[in-house]
Fold ABC transporter ATP-binding protein.
Amino acid sequence: MAIGPGLNIAVDEKRFGVSEPLFKGLRFDIAPGSVVALIGPSGIGKSTLLRMIAGIDSDFAGIITVDGTPAAMAPTPGFVFQDPRLLPWLTAMNNIRAVDPRCTPKQAASALQRVGLADAAGLYPHQLSGGMQRRVALARAVAVNASLLLLDEPFVSLDRALVAEMRTLFRAVVGDGQPTVLFVSHLADDAARLADRVIVLQQRPATIVADIALPIAPRSRDEAVLADYRQMVDRH
Ligand SMILES: Nc1ncnc2c1ncn2[C@@H]1O[C@H](COP(=O)(O)OP(=O)(O)OP(=O)(O)O)[C@@H](O)[C@H]1O
C-alpha cells in the first residue's frame, strides 16, 4: 500500500460568528505516513480542526493541503467520529457502502475483515455491541480512504477492556500499511501508546505548546517507555 499523504496546515484565522477566534496563525505539517496525536482540553477546537483538515469545514482564512491539494478538493479521508454514527436501517456491510457509492461488496467485506468482523456483514447496528459498532465505524473509514485516517476521540466513553481492544485494532490497521493518521484525544496515554508524534494545544486562540516526537515504535514500548512518554505529554 502506498504511503499516506503529507498534510500542510496554515490557518490564518478560524472563528464561529463573532466569538473569539479558535485559531489564529496556526501552522504545522504532518509528514507522510506519520501517526500524530492531537491533544488538548475540551473546547479548544480539536474536532473543528479535524473537520477543516477533512475538507468538511472550509469556512476559515488560510489553507490546508493534502499532498499539495486544498483539503476540500482532496480525496475524502477516512473519518471516525466520536460516536459510531451507523445508520440503523442498514446492515454493517451497507453502512460501509453507503458512504462511498464506489465501494463494492467485496471491498466492504475486506474492510470488515480487517477489523475482525467478517461474520457480522449482515447484522444491523442494534444487533452489534458498542465495541462492534466502533469497529464498523473504523472499517467504514478504512473503506473510504485507508491512506488518510482522521479519528476524533476514537476511544472515548468505552470501558477499559474495549479501549484496549480498540487500541490493538488501531495498531493493526495502521500496521497494515503506512497511512497518515491524525487522531484527537485528551489522554496522554493514547498518545504514548499509539502515536509517533504528539501535538499539544492550549489557550485560545489554540496554540501549539508542545510538539513531541516519540521515536520508539509503538510495538516496542515497554511500561517504562510508556510512563516516560506519558510524562512528556502531561507536562504541558
Ligand atoms: N458549528 C459550530 N458553531 C458554533 N460554534 C461551534 C461550532 N462547532 C464548534 N463550535 C465551538 O468551537 C469551540 C471548539 O469546539 P470543538 O468541538 O472543536 O472543540 P474540541 O477541542 O474538539 O472539544 P471536545 O474535546 O469537548 O470535543 C467550542 O467552543 C464550540 O462550542
Q: What stands out?
A: The chain has a mean pLDDT of 92.
